[in-house]
């Protein structure tokens, strides 16, 4: 059996402030650190023994991975970072309060920008100092985006999935990916062959391990969150309601 675990980073400081984050490199909140540690405890108690891990270039995911692995006494395992696991780029929405943006643009438009398959927010100008082309970690990478839809996120992620993640999973058998709500939604959409409309309403809570089990022929056997159903439902609803006007 092969087991892949997807872990959305713990609550970030901008999650707490209800701001669109995207590629902005914000830190974990105190609650986010606690969520990351609790995820490590849950995975340890569930018997996971990871041999390899992947994460993004953003510190909220990197630190979530660190705290989770520390709880598992597994900080020694190899960790591979890739910008292709970064969150979806939210363009000009980055830094905006989600509730205020909903009042300005309307709930339907914000839902499209947040969750739709192929509608991207308006892009950042290349002259904007927050555009990732000005960030040292992305130098030399062609076509760095200034905005993305989920479709764009999947297109830059899938080659990495096929070329790195799947081969490592086949070799190591238990792999952990610590990343972001939308990059993980892209992976889930691909694994479960979700439709473009179905993915709109699918939400991944922070700090809850999401397990995919495969048979020896790499066929998906089952998938599940390590959380009780009521807690999971409540957390998913909280994610879905982040864009609501207040």
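^ Assign residues to that structure.
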């Amino acid at each position: 059996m092969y087991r892949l675990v997807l872990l959305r980073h713990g609550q970030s400081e901008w999650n707490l402030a209800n701001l669109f984050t995207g590629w902005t490199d914000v830190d974990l909140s105190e609650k986010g650190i606690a969520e990351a540690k609790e995820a490590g405890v849950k995975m340890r108690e569930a018997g996971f023994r990871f041999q390899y891990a992947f994460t993004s270039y953003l510190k909220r995911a990197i630190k979530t991975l660190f705290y989770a692995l520390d709880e598992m006494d597994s900080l020694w395992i190899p960790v591979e970072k890739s910008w292709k696991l970064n969150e979806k780029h939210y363009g000009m929405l980055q830094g905006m309060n989600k509730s205020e943006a909903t009042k300005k643009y309307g709930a339907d438009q914000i839902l499209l920008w947040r969750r739709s398959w192929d509608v991207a927010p308006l892009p950042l100008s290349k002259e904007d100092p927050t555009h990732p082309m000005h960030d040292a970690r992305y130098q030399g990478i062609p076509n760095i985006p200034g905005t993305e839809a989920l479709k764009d996120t999947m297109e830059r992620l899938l080659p990495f999935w096929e070329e790195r993640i799947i081969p490592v999973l086949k070799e190591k058998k238990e792999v952990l990916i610590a990343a972001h709500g939308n990059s993980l939604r892209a992976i889930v959409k691909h694994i479960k062959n979700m439709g473009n409309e179905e993915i709109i309403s699918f939400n991944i809570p922070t700090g809850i391990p999401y397990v995919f089990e495969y048979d020896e022929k790499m066929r998906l056997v089952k998938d599940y969150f390590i959380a009780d159903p009521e807690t999971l439902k409540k957390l998913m609803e909280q994610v879905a309601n982040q864009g609501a006007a207040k």
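The chain has a mean pLDDT of 94.
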